[in-house]
Specification:
mainly alpha, 74% helix
Length: 480
């Protein structure tokens, strides 16, 4: 398994380095591929956001803990893609017209507010960083389990982080896209292989009947405000769907803005819900694990690896491990690139030259990765414990993103800023204070108050200052 680990890390990173394109050795080329990527390439970039180490490890673990409530993930993904289908092409057209590289660019320009630009960039960076650590720690968990050596997991985290830094700095988004081709196919194949292996091992004894007999509560969503109950399920689907559909995740932007035409964005969001059906496989495997694996409390996320180890020959287990490693490295590199783009685009002086922005982006990627590695080694649970903050915190940006692609003037920059500040404050206070309102997702509570504050402040402070109508009409009709 150590050999499989080295092969997996080496293969993914090699593909990343091979993605280098000298013509894209500029900041706009490094960060969004010079807006020249095809429909297929951007599809794999966006699909990469579905299957991460959380999907691979965490979905089965969540099924063990919350049963069918784990289906909240495919539910919100499909809802989110509907939202992205509606606003994605508009964002591409505006980005092409005005040269946007991030959502902070879009909101700051559309509402003529430097404060909003900086605030959204900072919020996106801070709330999205836990995702990077989750991928790195997930990689270490997979390697440690597969090899039976904790030290192997630690060294794999160090090696992978340093090599990610190398190919992200060298090849930028093109490198991420090249690795995504392999990862997005390999991950689905690996899950199907595990499912087939488990079915063969099960010999048709009826795993659902066994679950019904032993743990029937797993087949229904708990009532009321219980953990993983119906209130949690509905509000989590809503807030996560709003977050994804409102394109609040920084990694959503390179895949959209890098497309060579708006139709590529539209087509991808039609087919991505079909690809999302693959997320049901780890949920099904979670039900198998309830009956077939002895699960130690706290190790639920390793259940899918236990199933694979018990049902597959060594060489196939090696392939699963390689696929799992790719499922951690590729999202981590995409996330780091997205965060570094926000820093090098929106948190530097406007007078900064393009060459200097590229340098800042590469240095930022290095700092983020090395900081995350240090935290992963010293406090592996630190950012993972903040994971719930990510979607709740980023969802507060959704109103600003959505309003920016409209021509409305009632909601202004002051209203958006006030609602955003209050919304983020509620998310932080509720999360760290362990406050729950009727079992609802804290992000939804914060978003409702965010919207109320936004409307009230805008009504009091007057009409928004927006770019000229002619420019917006040009953007709405422009096609590359």
């Amino acid at each position: 398994m150590i050999v499989a680990t080295v092969i997996g890390i080496g293969l993914v990173v090699l593909l990343g380095f091979l993605g280098k394109n000298q013509q894209l050795d500029t900041h706009v080329g490094w960060s969004i591929g010079n807006r020249t990527m095809s429909t297929v390439t951007t599809f794999f970039l966006q699909a990469g956001a579905i299957f991460t180490s959380f999907t691979f490890l965490g979905m089965s673990g969540l099924t063990i803990l919350g049963g069918i409530s784990s289906a909240y993930m495919p539910s919100y993904l499909i809802i989110g893609y509907i939202g992205m289908f509606l606003i994605g092409p508009l964002i591409w057209k505006l980005g092409k017209t005005y040269g946007y590289r991030t959502n902070a660019d879009l909101v700051g320009h559309q509402f003529k507010s430097k404060f909003l630009e900086k605030a959204i960039a900072v919020i996106a960076v801070v709330f999205f960083m836990p995702i990077v650590q989750v991928q790195i720690v997930g990689l270490g968990t997979m390697v440690s389990f597969a090899t039976g050596q904790k030290q192997a997991g630690t060294w794999s985290m160090v090696l992978a982080t340093l090599l990610i830094l190398g190919f992200v700095s060298w090849a930028g988004l093109r490198g991420v896209a090249t690795t995504a081709y392999f990862k997005d196919v390999a991950m689905v194949v690996a899950l199907v292989v595990i499912l087939i292996g488990v079915l063969v091992l099960d010999k048709g004894t009826g795993f659902m009947a066994a679950v019904t007999d032993k743990m029937p509560n797993l087949l229904q969503i708990k009532p009321g405000s219980q953990a993983y109950g119906i209130t949690w399920y509905i509000t989590s689907v809503i807030i996560s769907g709003v977050g994804l559909g409102g394109m609040t995740l920084p990694e959503s932007w390179p895949a959209v803005l890098s497309a060579n035409k708006s139709k590529a964005v539209s087509k991808n969001h039609v087919f991505l819900p079909l690809y999302t059906l693959g997320t049901f496989i780890p949920i099904i495997l979670g039900f198998f694990a309830v009956r077939m694996v002895k699960i130690v409390p706290g190790d639920e996320n390793s259940a899918i690896l236990s199933l694979a180890k018990n049902s597959l020959p060594g060489w196939l287990m090696g392939f699963v491990l390689i696929s799992g490693i790719a499922c951690a490295i590729v999202p981590a590199s995409h996330c780091v690139l997205s965060i570094a783009t926000l820093i090098s685009t929106n948190l530097v002086p406007k007078s900064t030259q393009e060459k200097s922005k590229l340098t800042v982006g590469r240095v930022s990627a290095a700092v983020i990765l090395l900081l995350t590695l240090a935290l992963s080694l010293l406090r592996p649970d630190l950012m993972a414990n903040l994971y719930l903050l990510t979607y709740a915190g980023l969802a507060q940006i959704a109103p600003a993103n959505i309003l920016s692609v409209t021509k409305q003037k009632f909601i202004n920059a002051k209203g958006i800023a006030a609602g955003l500040v209050v919304g983020e404050a509620i998310v932080i206070v509720f999360t760290f204070g362990k406050i729950s309102l009727f079992g609802m997702n804290n992000g939804l509570v914060a978003l409702v108050i965010n919207l109320i504050i936004m409307v009230v402040v805008s009504a009091v402070t007057g009409e928004a200052q927006r770019p000229e109508a002619m420019a917006l009409q040009t953007a709405a009709g422009k096609e590359a």
